Amino acid sequence: MRNLIALVLLCVPFAGWADDWEDRLVFNESAEGPRLRVISSTDTVLFAPVIEGFVEENPFVSIEYLVSGTADINRRVRAMPEAFDVIISSAMDLQLKLANDGYALPIDDVPVPHWAQWHHSLFAFTSEPATIVINRTAFEGQPIPQTRQGLIEALRKRPEEFRGKVGTYDVRQSGLGYLFATQDARASETYWRLMEVMGGLDVRLYCCSGDMINDLADGSILVAYNVLGSYAAVRTEGKDALEVVLPSDFQTIMMRTAMVSKSTPEPKAAETLLRYIVAERSVADEETNPLPLLRLSDGDNGRETIGLDPALLTFLDGLKRTRFLSAWEDAVIQ
Amino acid sequence: MTTSPTVSGSLRNRLVLTLIGGAAVLAVLLFLTVRSYAAKVAQQGQDDILGASVSSILDAAALRNGELEVDIPYAAFSMLSTPSDDRVFYAIYQDGEFLSGYEDLSLADGPIDGRWAFQTGLVRGERIRQVSASRTLVGLGRQTEIEVALGQTQDALSDTLDQISRNAAYLGIGFFLLTAALSFWVTTTTIGQLNKLTNSVTRRGPQDLSPFKKPVPKEMAPLVMSLNSLMGRLDQSLSQSEDFIAEAAHRVRTPLATVRSYAEATLHRVEREDNREALKAMVRAIDESSRAAGQLLDHAMITFRADHLEREEIDLVVLIRDLVQRLIPIAEMKELTLSLTGEPSVPYSGDPILIQNAVRNMIDNAMKYAPSDSTVEVMIIAHPEPQIQVRDAGPGFPPDEIDTLTRRFERGQNAAGTIGSGLGLTIAQDVATAHGGSLILKNRSKGGACVILSL
After folding, report:
1. Of the candidates A308, A310, A317, which has its C-beta nearest B80's C-beta?
2. For chain A, which has fewer Cβ within 10 Å, the N-terminal or C-terminal residue?
3. What superfamily would CATH give domain A2-127+255-302?
4. Is the pLDDT confidence value at A289 over 70?
5. Which tens digits make up the pLDDT trace of A138-148?
6. What sign does the CA torsion over A29, A31, A37, A38 have?
7. Given an 8 Å threshold on Cβ–Cβ distance, is A314 in contact with B125?
8. Domain boundaries along the sequence of chain A
């Protein structure tokens, strides 16, 4: 009973139990073969090239692509593991916990480096940094901050200009936001000071990167912290107003991961898709594919990329999460 | 004639089998020992990490305003990362009530070993190693006990064990192969000593009964000692019997000569024809007996000289010519011609007395069987090896007995009515053997026998 309450608490964002998806698209609908249900946190527009490439190679398979938030994906998969064949999410910690809890089907001999897979069941296929995205109009004639410290100073210098115009993830709702926040907090105390400053400026909290970038583009907010680099990169094309900053003090790099559900009714087709996604990521041309490749060199991968290891379970512990969220609320909601 | 000994089993096979069997047992033992030791060490390693991890979680527990807070350190789970990505389960209980983590992971009910209790069990269908530990917190008049269970699957451990097992197996097999090769070598070397002794026994000449002097391993000394003592006794009894024969022959010969002279003297005085015939027969019989006694003496002498062969440089032609000249009167008495042909000079290193004796026996033999008015030819050849051939125009050897005639006291079927002991050719053969040569008996195509003494 207590466990259930904890579970519900863990998945605060209520998208509701009904099938109200952020997006839902069926590829190759007329195919006679199996239909794979892919639940993903990646926007359809970003992932469509991959799926289209797959159904071209496997015309008998149709794919229902369902998009939802990372925390919601975690909740839905735990509630109905047999309803999904492939699970793709950017929240590495939630994905690792799913795999650790036995929701993933182990697949042998998937050609990925050891650090990009866990327990032969969870496979990373992109590496994407958390970035600061800035609307250039706010910094006309002034240097654009390149570090968190620089951002803090810029915000403190002109508090009235930025009041109500800074945004970041609501870590209570977003699984990815929670992952970035906990990793930032591990890396540096600067994170807490930045949160306090942003909290003092009536920070606006978002569930997803997409909404944040939309508001940035139309000027509703001027600075967004911990936005997924890939989403921002897609937007900057054509919209010169946005500047994507990779913080130079330290970076938090997330790897998008995929797994096959253990209770999938179509294990073979699901495995084929997973292999395609992973292989596609390793060879695809970055020009044509909006998702950034896995950084294959082990060297610069070292500290910045969040490791796929059991330590990711730490901040998902109920007690730890409660503690972290209360500290975060103390800083942000004033 | 050699009789084959009764063979029961093989010393070599028994040695090899025992050694290889022992090596196999040792190799298996080695494998099992290494494996179980490695398993213990690997398990100890996992236990140590689990223990450290659970300690760090317990250390992070604190009572704040009467509420229990457990701030799990990032390192607590980070240190559980393994090359095989083992799954991790944990559960936190407060005063026996579940607080956080995996509810299906219960506390270990095994004996608390110091601070930690370890156990192996099944969680979610996976075999896990689990540690449980507890800590009592006191704060603001309240006392509470926090218990933490931490479990980890054993994929990395079994991978390590597999690898170690494989290496241990290679080690065992290597050890076995090495030992097997070694045992083959050891066995061969050991048996080789026996073979060496066997060879040196086999290589000995028929008369060689001297003791073995070559060094042998300690274990074989008793065998060689009894062999030597056996041969000593054999040698002694052999020489005793030779001495006895020689002595007997000598003692018989002198009285025989006396009897013969009496018989001859009586023959001259007796006038009645039938009495004369009886006396003549008597003289012939006495001749035969004394000849046999003489040959027995010769044979004993030859056996002795052959055992201690003393070679000197001689010319065979000179030696044989001397002999032939001495025998010519006897040949003439029998109306036979004795001819000597061949090389003018054949130098040879040997015992002249033995050779003369052998050739005399050969010529005697030929003259006995040669018909009147025929020639007995003696021929000396130098190449390819020194040979002395004696030919006669007699009836030749019976073809089916040609191989057995050189045995002692063996006489041809056609020898009836001819004086002889059957020792003549045996003596010639012994002399040939003592000089490293052979005696060949042949029948001539034109009729008659041919005896070849090849040296």
Report:
1. A310
2. N
3. Periplasmic binding protein-like II (3.40.190.10)
4. no
5. 888 889 999 99
6. negative
7. no
8. 2-127+255-302, 130-253+321-332
Coil, strand or helix: which one is B303?
A: helix
Residue A187: Cβ-neighbour burial (10 angstroms; 0-12, 13-18, 19+): middle
Any idea which of A173-182, A189-198, B353-362 has the lowest mean pLDDT? B353-362
Q: Name the residue among B350, B367, B371, B365 with its Cα closest to residue B295.
A: B365
* Residue pLDDT, tens place only, B267-293: 888 888 888 888 888 888 888 888 778
**The pair of three-digit structure tokens given for residue A259, joined into one six-digit string:** 């797994």
| pLDDT of B409 strictly over 70 | no
Query: What residue of B is the nearest CA neighbor of A104?
Result: B87
Q: Which helix (H) or strand (E) holds A195?
A: helix A190-200
Give tens-digit pLDDT for A41-53. 998 888 998 999 9
| Residue among B71, B78, B83 whose CB faces A320 most closely | B71
Neighbouring-strand partners of residue B177: none
The pLDDT score that the predictor gives to residue A1 is 44
Q: Which of the four pLDDT bands, split at 50, 70 and 90, describes residue A2?
A: very low
B84 CA: distance to closest CA in chain A (Å): 6
- Calpha distance B83→B193 (Å, rounded): 58
Q: Is B69–A310 a contact, with Cβ atoms under 8 angstroms apart?
A: no
CB B146 within 8 A of CB B97: no
Q: With 0-12 CB in 10 A as exposed, 13-18 as middle and 19+ as buried, what is A209? A: buried
Place of tokens 């083959």: B184
Q: Test B69 with A319 for CB contact under 8 angstroms.
A: yes
What's the CA gap between A317 and B55, in Å, rounded?
A: 17
CATH classification number, A130-253+321-332, choose in 1.10.1040.10, 3.40.190.10, 3.40.1190.10, 3.40.50.2000: 3.40.190.10
- For the segment A117-134, the average pLDDT, to the nearest whole number, is 92
Residue in A198, A196, A195, A225 with CA at minimum distance from that of residue A213: A225
**In a 3-state reduction of DSSP, which class is residue A215?**
helix
Q: How far apart are CA B60 and CA B137, in angstroms?
A: 11
3-state helix, strand, coil in chain B (%, to 5): 55, 20, 25
> Which of A309, A312, A322, A326 to probe by mutation at the B interface, max B CB count within 10 Å?
A309
Contacts of B115 (CB under 8 A, 6+ apart): B51, B55, B133
Q: What is the pLDDT of residues B335-384, one digit of tens each?
A: 888 888 888 888 888 888 888 888 888 888 888 888 888 888 888 888 88
Q: Collect all residues from A whose CB is shorter than 8 A from any CB in B.
A: 2-3, 6, 100-102, 114, 117-120, 186, 307-314, 317-320, 323
CB < 8 Å to A114, chain B: 83
Most A CBs within 10 Å, among B46, B64, B87, to test the A interface? B87
